[in-house]
Write a structure and sequence with these properties.
By secondary structure, the protein is α+β, with helices and mostly antiparallel strands. It has four domains: 7-119, PAS domain (Beta-Lactamase, 2-Layer Sandwich), CATH 3.30.450.20; 125-299, GAF domain (Beta-Lactamase), CATH 3.30.450.40; 311-462, Alpha-Beta Plaits; 485-723, EAL domain (TIM Barrel, Alpha-Beta Barrel). Helices cover 43% and strands 23% of the residues. It has 26 helices and 26 strands. The protein has an eight-stranded mixed barrel. It has a five-stranded antiparallel beta sheet with strand order 2-1-5-4-3. Strands 7-6-10-9-8 form a five-stranded antiparallel beta sheet, with helices on both faces. A hairpin with a 6-residue loop joins strand 6 and strand 7. Helix 5 (121-141) runs antiparallel to helix 10 and helix 12 packs across helix 13. The longest helix has 29 residues, at 273-301.
Length: 730
């Protein structure tokens, strides 16, 4: 027997229990951000990778948020909690969960929460329906509220259609005895009664209640003209009076009729207020049951946030449209896949609440662009799909353009003016596929092509897109292994002080050399890294590698050199950004003033949060630069509030500065504005002597570009730096 514990084996056992559990398993940090999710949790939510390092709070349905936060707080206090909650998955469907959560202890301190969530949606829905039915049946089993005065029979009859029949749905014991009787040979007219009574304005109390949508009291069937056709049957079986009430859905459509029948006529004295009140209460229980069922059915087929049809209903309608499609020369079905451009920036900078409000606004505008037969749907996140029924290609193009125009107008949401545009992909039936799944996949591919074409446009599916998609998938798969295989490297481009021609800094630029794909340019893999969340780990690697490289140069005698690093929006808003950079600075033992963090204008849309993060960065002692300045949405009134050191003029203004007075004016304006704000300006993309001369003439402080030095790996750049050390004449 072993005398020691094999902790690695224990770890592997628990890891297997976590990873392969059929129920959703998760771990949260102290702030409620996901640390780990198993595959079951990913399927439950809709996407595992995107949820890691995000808060659980936006997933929780608003009517369960308070109690869920309370349970989370209790666990962080050291308690084991079992509770119910509800989330909205990526498709917008509400899911009911039964959750068990316990604290994570590390070195006797609580460091987070680990838990298991069971999907009990189907069970909860069923319980809701049964609860409504059971309330009705319980009342019936105990006898009518009028049983102290009259014998009775209780029916719930379901309206089939105008001019159709009412079929008996629920009856009490007295009703069963009446209908079934003791004789095995029932008369034909009795069978006719069992099969239903036609609905009409003057056919029985049930028909009248359904037709006019009002309650009907028949005090004596024998003398009431409503019962002309069925009076004989009713009287034969002892039915002398009735009380009928329609059951309406939320749109005031008749679902059925609730009726109570009595074995003797009702005089005004016997049909007193108390009886009517009790009968009304019993009717309300039936109506609650129908409304509960209706609500559950609605929730099962509609997106909880926008009210649009969800993926399930959309697929059904597409399949039905395909089944009923009649081919003509110029008519077809169109499937659109719509994605909002840069929605993640809005969501991350302004918050999920604003993002949700924006999605509702987009959904409303989409509906104004479509006809009655067309179906808009929310697939999840910021993705929408649209079914256009029986239209020509030209008509589908007009609808797509109308959507671009309408959705692209500015929004005033939650006090923020927001600009968002859609990218739309379109597939056509029967040309691009015969099944809903195939058509949707191809519309999705076309949407990605619209993104590549500059966003805010629509593209029809093309067979060539399939290969491009395969290439992207292959690139993403290789990217996931790149860090572990040590395939990344940094090149460094010099930044020159134009007043004395001295090297002031170098910018770190990532390169990826894959053994299978060869050299992959940043513009190909950075968007994928950003979209999948891999940019977090890649970005940390870049900062650490750049800082250690600067330390090596300092040790080799290259002094007074600063190094700049670009960070993405996902890095900028990650919770541990400040801690991560601080730790790297300490590890590398470099002066924080020698590190410049470059952000883009789009990261500052949420001014309050951006200011907070930038101030935290400044407390570390690093420099801050706004990259690609002039292409974003920064307000000058906010710009002066940011604790920044540099503005970098985007190279799009530099490339035509010698030929375009407008570009020269823009560059000049930025230089003057920066001077008034006591900021330094760096011009990017300087490639000609003429461009450099104009920049010098307008007193631009620093510049970089191929004219001044192209990006080089450290070994190739070092001889240049050593022969022309920072601070010497270039």
């Amino acid at each position: 027997m072993h005398s020691f514990i094999n902790y690695q084996n224990i770890f592997n056992i628990y890891k297997s229990l976590f990873d392969f559990n059929h129920d959703a398993c998760y771990a949260l940090d102290l702030n409620g951000n996901f640390i780990l999710l198993n595959d079951a949790a990913g399927k439950l939510i809709g996407n595992t990778n995107e949820e890691v390092q995000k808060s659980f709070i936006p997933l929780i349905h608003e009517d369960r948020l308070e109690e869920t936060l309370y349970a989370f707080k209790r666990v962080l206090q050291g308690n084991r909690e079992e509770f119910r909650t509800a989330i909205n998955d990526r498709a917008g469907n509400r899911k009911e969960l039964s959750v068990t959560a316990v604290p994570i202890y590390i070195d006797h301190k609580i460091n987070g929460v680990v838990g298991i969530a069971k999907d009990v949606t189907e069970k909860t829905n069923l319980a809701t329906l049964l609860n409504g039915q059971n309330k009705v049946l319980e009342m019936i089993a105990k006898g009518s509220p009028c049983s102290d005065v009259l014998d009775n029979i209780i029916y719930v009859v379901e309206k089939v259609s105008n001019g159709g029949v009412c079929s008996i749905h629920l009856i009490d014991e007295a009703g069963q005895k009446l209908l079934r009787g003791s004789s095995p040979n029932l008369p034909a007219e009795y069978n006719e009664f069992i099969n239903g009574i036609p609905i009409g304005p003057s056919i029985g109390s049930c028909g009248t209640a359904a037709y006019y949508k009002r309650r009907v009291i028949v005090k004596d069937i024998a003398s009431d003209p409503l019962w002309n056709e069925y009076r004989g049957i009713a009287l034969k079986h002892g039915l002398r009076a009735c009380w009928s009430s329609p059951v309406l859905d939320n749109q005031q459509n008749v679902l059925g009729v609730f009726a109570m029948y009595y074995n003797k006529p009702c005089t005004p004295e016997s049909w007193d207020k108390k009886i009517i009140e009790k009968a009304t209460y019993l009717t309300s229980l039936v109506i609650q049951h129908y409304h509960a069922e209706e609500k559950i059915n609605y929730m099962a087929f509609h997106d909880a946030l926008t009210g649009l049809p969800n993926r399930r209903l959309f697929d059904e309608r597409v399949n039905l449209a395909i089944t009923n499609f009649e081919h003509t020369q110029d008519k077809m079905l169109g499937l659109m896949f719509l994605d909002l451009d840069r929605f993640k920036i809005i969501n991350d900078s302004l918050g999920h609440n604003i993002g949700d409000l924006l999605l509702r606004d987009v959904a409303e505008r989409l509906q104004t662009c479509l006809g009655d037969k067309d179906t808009p749907s929310r697939q999840g996140g910021d993705e929408f799909t649209i079914l256009i029924e029986t239209a020509s290609r030209r008509e589908i193009e007009k609808i797509a353009q109308n959507i671009l125009d309408e959705v692209g107008r500015p929004y005033m949401t939650g006090g923020h003016e927001i600009f968002v545009t859609p990218s739309i992909g379109i597939s056509l039936y029967p040309f691009d596929g015969e099944k809903a799944s195939s058509l949707l996949r191809k519309a999705d591919l076309a949407m990605y092509q619209a993104k590549k074409e500059g966003r805010n446009n629509f593209q029809f599916y093309d067979e060539k897109l399939a290969k491009k998609t395969f290439d992207r998938l292959e690139l993403e798969n290789e990217l996931r292994k790149a860090l572990a295989k040590d395939e990344f490297s940094l090149h460094y481009q010099p930044i020159i002080n134009l007043s004395n021609n001295r090297i002031t800094s170098v910018e770190s630029l990532i390169r990826w050399n894959n053994e299978k794909l060869g050299m992959v340019m940043p513009k190909q893999f950075i968007p994928i890294a950003e979209e999948t969340g891999m940019i977090i780990d890649i970005g940390e690697w870049v900062i650490r590698t750049a800082c250690y490289q600067l330390k090596r140069w300092e040790e080799d005698g290259i002094q007074s050199l600063t190094i700049s690093v670009n960070i993405s929006i996902r890095q900028f808003y990650q919770p541990n950004l400040i801690t991560m950079i601080s730790n790297i600075l300490k590890e590398a033992e470099i002066d924080p003033q020698n590190l410049t963090i470059e952000i883009t204008e789009s990261m500052t849309m949420d001014v309050e949060t951006a200011t907070f993060i930038l101030c935290k960065l400044k407390t570390l002692g690093v420099n801050i630069s706004i990259d690609d300045f002039g292409t974003g949405y920064s307000s000058l009134s906010y710009l002066k509030k940011f604790p920044i050191d540099y503005l970098k003029i985007d190279q799009s203004f530099i490339c035509d500065i010698t030929n375009s007075k407008n570009d020269e004016s823009i560059a000049t304006t930025i230089l003057l504005m920066a001077k008034s704000l006591d900021l330094s300006v760096i011009a990017e993309g300087v490639e000609t002597a003429e461009q450099l001369e104009i920049l010098r003439r307008h007193y631009c402080q620093e510049a970089q570009g191929y004219l001044l030095g192209k990006p080089l790996p450290p070994l190739e750049l070092e001889p240049f730096l050593k022969s022309l050390p920072a601070g010497s004449e270039s």
